Amino acid sequence: MEMIVDFPGGARVDTHFGPYTVATDQPPAGGGAGSAPTPFAVFLASVGACAGIYVLGFCKQRGLPTDGLRIVQRAHADPLTGLIGEIALEIQVPPTIPAKYHEALVRSADQCLVKKHFEHPPQFQIYTAVVETA
């Protein structure tokens, strides 16, 4: 999948792919306007959203209600490095979902492809290319 990243002004950085644009910005303290989440916040949000897709699919396949169902994600940073050392996903289940499905919901969230990429990270190649502008 190809994505195009551009710089629309200030500290904004937008990523375009297919018909979508993911806008990011920095908070005012970081030189931005705070008009959008930071790239790192979008990165973290992708974990919970991905797990949520699998949990939602599990519930839909079984006709389980999703009212009141939610995932609370907590990222715990290492105080020395500032890097995230743990991400906890708490699947909050309403009483309308029988207890027999609780462990299966955890297994569903565990299938998240974003999480799997954390477990088996890709290699990065970063380079420049000179392009002529018309």
Please name the CATH topology of the largest domain. GMP Synthetase, Chain A, domain 3
| Poorly predicted runs | none
Characterize the main sheet: 3 strands, antiparallel
* Total E-strand runs: 5
Helix fraction, binned, reads 25-40%
Report the order of strands and helices: EEEHEEHH
Strand content: 25-35%
Tell me, briefly, the overall form: elongated
Oligomer: single chain
Radius of gyration (Å): 19 Å
Number of domains: 2
Structural class: alpha+beta
Distance between the termini: 26 Å
Q: Output mean pLDDT.
A: 96
Word description of this protein:
The chain has helices at 39-62, 102-109, 113-119, and strands at 4-9, 12-17, 20-24, 70-77, 84-92. Helix 1 (39-62) crosses helix 2. The protein is built from three helices and five strands. A hairpin with a 6-residue loop joins strand 4 (70-77) and strand 5 (84-92). By secondary structure, it is an alpha+beta fold. The model has no long low-confidence stretch (mean pLDDT 96). It has two domains: 1-36; 38-119, GMP Synthetase, Chain A, domain 3, CATH 3.30.300. Helix content is 29%, strand content 25%.
SSE layout:
Layout: E1 4-9, E2 12-17, E3 20-24, H1 39-62, E4 70-77, E5 84-92, H2 102-109, H3 113-119
Antiparallel strand pairs: 1-2, 2-3, 4-5
Helix pairs in contact: 1-2
Provide tags for this entry.
about 130 residues, alpha+beta, GMP Synthetase, Chain A, domain 3, 2 domains, three-stranded antiparallel sheet, two-stranded antiparallel sheet, 3 helices, 5 strands, about 30% helix
In short:
With 134 residues, the chain is an alpha+beta fold. It is built from three helices and five strands; from the N terminus they run E-E-E-H-E-E-H-H. The protein is 29% helix and 25% strand.
